[in-house]
Design brief:
- The chain is built from ten helices and eleven strands.
- The chain is α+β, with helices and mostly antiparallel strands and 415 residues long.
């Protein structure tokens, strides 16, 4: 069928081609301005799909790297205070060794006690340190409170009230920070681990030989939840605690038949009845209204203290001139505390090294992903400028041709 050519055909075709050229030129100008060859999915659907995935992954990698950097900074602050505390404890040990010699006068012992008391205050200051963001470093996840509270009291030989007791006021929960895909770093900032000197031993004073759980319940041991089934006796409970993986070993005392608990490393026991009343029935804790760690029952005997406890024992023994206590209980506790603090420092240092390796790896991954994004989405500027120049020439030629076609005027018809 022949195509009908009207008097408006040439004009419409010319206008259509001019508009198409303007659209193409505007698209290239937009690509040059954004430095991206994909401004809409239809430009390259496959590359656009890859680009979205790469950009999403790059965003996650950048977040992982930022998490590692922020956490690494916190670890450096934490390690600095721990190192300072270790130096304090080493000086305390020097004074303990001197005081245990038995060759010093009571006045000399008093002077040593005064220095130890000042070192105790500095140790407590380190334990209650806050980071640059104003949060408590050693209070676990309770970062808006002081990690340790102090009770003041009178001590024989001291001229003013001194620190008599230090109580942990934070939590034992740990934050999990994601530093890679499904890879987390556990942040343990609990002060009752970092500043603890000895393994803690708990001796239950209540006979548990006839105890039997009356209902299903859940107990908490150092944050680990352990299910207690109705009908369980004390031996079943001991078995469940020992199989839970928590750093506590349970047993039944052969004399008192009470439940005994011992930590496998230096930290403070944290016991609670999450649901039910199993531990309260065994006499281990008072009741659910009392919060750990100072909720232990009145019949319970406890041993193993914090760094503060060992320094307080040394100070009081120096004030009273008790060389036997200084060379025995005090020096033994100080040595245990130094060993525990060195272990914590080694763990903190290894965690920081791991974070540094994570940051290096994430930087490399980000560089590779940026290369993939550039390959899929970045504009070939040389080609784009060449195409833009060709479109400019084509548009000028079209306008020149149109000018020749429509150069006739009314005067041409009046001749």
């Amino acid at each position: 069928m022949p195509t009908r050519i009207s008097s408006q055909y040439n004009n419409r075709q010319t206008q259509h081609n001019l508009r198409r050229q303007e659209i193409n030129r505007a698209r290239i100008d937009n690509q040059i301005g954004t430095q991206s060859r994909i401004s809409a999915l239809r430009d390259d659907p496959i590359a656009a799909g890859h680009l979205v995935k790469y950009q999403s992954f790059l965003s996650r990698v950048n977040n992982f790297e930022k998490n590692a950097q922020v956490l690494g900074d916190k670890f450096k602050y934490r390690e600095g205070y721990m190192q300072a505390s270790l130096e304090i404890m080493q000086r305390v040990r020097e004074l303990a060794v001197q005081g245990a010699n038995g060759v010093y006068t009571p006045e000399d012992m008093q002077n040593m006690a005064v220095e130890v008391n000042e070192l105790l205050g500095e140790l407590l200051q380190n334990a209650n340190a806050v980071g640059p963001d104003g949060t408590s470093i050693f209070a676990g996840t309770a970062t808006n409170i002081r990690a340790f509270d102090v009770d003041m009291g009178a001590v024989k030989g001291a001229t003013a009230p001194v620190i008599a007791n230090v109580r942990y006021n934070g939590s034992i929960e740990q934050n999990l920070i994601e530093v890679d895909e499904n890879k987390y770093v556990s942040v343990d900032n609990a002060g009752n681990r970092t500043f603890w000197a000895e393994q803690q031993r708990l001796f239950g004073g209540r006979d548990a030989s006839d105890w039997q759980a009356q209902e299903d319940s859940v107990i908490g041991v150092d944050g680990m939840r352990i299910n207690v089934d109705a009908g369980d006796n004390v031996y079943a409970l001991v078995s469940k605690i020992n199989a839970s993986g928590v750093s506590v070993k349970a047993g039944v005392d052969p004399v008192s038949h009470g439940l005994n608990l011992t930590t496998t490393d230096a930290h403070q026991l944290w016991l609670e009845d999450v649901s039910g009343s199993a531990l309260m029935e065994l006499g281990i804790i008072k009741d659910a209204s009392q919060k750990p760690p100072y909720n232990l029952g009145d019949s319970v005997r406890l041993s193993g203290g914090s760094l503060f406890d060992t320094v307080i024992v040394l100070r009081d023994a120096l004030f009273s001139g008790d060389s036997e206590t200084i060379g025995g209980r005090a020096l033994s506790g100080i040595d245990s505390g130094i060993n525990a603090l060195v272990t914590r420092l080694a763990k903190s240092g290894s965690e920081y090294e791991r974070l540094e390796k994570d940051m290096i790896r994430q930087s490399g991954v980000a560089l590779d992903v940026n290369g993939q994004i550039a390959r899929e989405g970045d504009l070939d500027l040389t080609k784009a400028l060449t195409d833009e120049k060709m479109l400019e020439q084509t548009q000028n030629a079209t306008l020149h041709t149109a000018g020749k076609m429509y150069s006739s005027s009314l005067l041409n018809y009046l001749r």
